[in-house]
Amino acid sequence: MAADLSQLVKAYDVRGVVPDQWDEALAELFGAAFVRVTGATAIVTGHDMRPSSPGLAAAFARGAAAQGVDVTEIGLCSTDQLYYASGALDLPGAMFTASHNPAQYNGIKLCRAGAAPVGQDTGLSEIRELVERWSDEGAPAPAATTGTITHRESLSDYAAHLRSLVDLTSIRPLKVVVDAGNGMGGHTVPTVFAGLPLDLVPMYFELDGTFPNHEANPLDPANLVDLQHRVRAESADLGIAFDGDADRCFVVDEQGDPVSPSAITALVASRELARHGGKGTIIHNLITSWSVPEVVKENGGTPVRTRVGHSFIKAEMAKSGAIFGGEHSAHYYFADFWNADTGMLAALHVLAALGGQEGPLSSLVAQYDRYVGSGEINSTVADQADRLAAIRETYGTRDDVTLDNLDGLTITSTDWWFNVRPSNTEPLLRLNAEARDEETMTKVRDEVLGIIRA
């Protein structure tokens, strides 16, 4: 009986419960399928700190090696450290992680050489088909010569590469609290921050894939509470939180208040544009703040708006030759990092910007945080299309708005905008709204929610 991978293989990665939905036997088949689809002769693998990760990664490596492919294992790493290895070694890569999901989950993020993404339209559907077939018919025949499996240390090279991209040598001393959430930030931060004029206050740096303190998902405000308290208690200059695989970073200011990822996108965009002589394309998805394209234009750059999702961002970066891209979800993409996302590099930019002037972070980011946003609000609905049609009917006849169908439905007026997007995997509609003031944002948000939840 062929394995049912419909709930396991997602749009951008593989993710599910171990061992209920997948196990090492399936991981071995994924390794074989990955090298068949990519045509690779060598690959690189890495894994996070989840209890099931080492076994799954080793099984994947066995499956690839059985097809005659040489495997370089970098072992414990963050997702962006795996992207670094894929880029620096010019090899396809596989990262074993379920990011911020609970402990019983695990997954694989796959990329081609140079950290180019693998998703449903770029190889993942073919990989799924092979794994399903082999789970029914039996594993593919091994190659005449088995590939080698070797280990390689990459953390120091990864840290050196990041440090080469941001000049932190002359910043003033800063006190920074870092919440690693028992995830891979506890592995990477000590090496990346080593030797910098930083008074580092570590929180939950112990690698523990059972997440004993809180979920490693800083997008949920509940998981920032410990960091916020600690920043205030320590009178720190800022706080940084990483998610489980440390590819996203979230920032709180000296008062413990969260800094919008859109403000971080605008701040980093201004720095990257300055580094490129005031010229360059900056990618932002359609639910980042109005602040982002405004700041990009003010700094000489060209903003390009895309759909939500890393595959769209990375594709547009490659197409347009963009130097940087940012998303509301705190994914930050850099041309100097093979167009891949790295929260650590974004964090270094924030430290450099803050340490390069005397004011507090709250004052620094105020110039990049100009509007009032609702954050993403999810609503369970019986019929996504029906509710979107109701919103279109309500606003479509108004003369003071424009409608946009790039990703869901975006309605824009002079003083506000909102976007409603259907989830691809759940019966949800996701609302993001922004306005020039709190009162207007609240009115628009509640009005749209009233239609969605009618």
Describe the structure.
The structure is a single chain. The chain has 454 residues and is of the alpha/beta class. It has 4 domains: 14-153, Alpha-D-Glucose-1,6-Bisphosphate, Chain A, domain 3 (3-Layer(aba) Sandwich); 157-255, Alpha-D-Glucose-1,6-Bisphosphate, Chain A, domain 3 (3-Layer(aba) Sandwich), CATH 3.40.120; 261-366, Alpha-D-Glucose-1,6-Bisphosphate, Chain A, domain 3 (3-Layer(aba) Sandwich); 372-452, Alpha-D-phosphohexomutase, C-terminal domain (TATA-Binding Protein, 2-Layer Sandwich). The chain has helices spanning 24-38, 53-66, 79-89, 124-137, 155-165, 185-192, 225-234, 261-275, 291-298, 310-320, 343-355, 361-366, 384-395, 438-452; strands at residues 14-17, 42-47, 70-76, 93-96, 105-112, 116-117, 149-151, 174-179, 198-203, 238-242, 249-252, 258-259, 281-285, 302-306, 324-326, 332-334, 372-373, 377-380, 402-404, 409-412, 416-422, 428-435. Strands 1, 2, 3, 4, 5, 6 and 7 form a 7-stranded mixed beta sheet that branches. Strands 17, 18, 19, 20, 21 and 22 form a 6-stranded antiparallel beta sheet that branches. Strands 9-8-10-11-12 form a 5-stranded mixed beta sheet, with helices on both faces. A hairpin with a 5-residue loop joins strand 15 and strand 16 (332-334). Helix 1 crosses helix 2 (53-66) and helix 8 (261-275) packs across helix 11 (343-355). It is globular and about 65 Å long. The mean pLDDT is 96. Belongs to the phosphohexose mutase family. This is Phosphomannomutase. Its cofactor is Mg(2+). Keywords: Isomerase, Magnesium, Metal-binding, Phosphoprotein. Pfam families: PGM_PMM_I, PGM_PMM_II, PGM_PMM_III, PGM_PMM_IV.
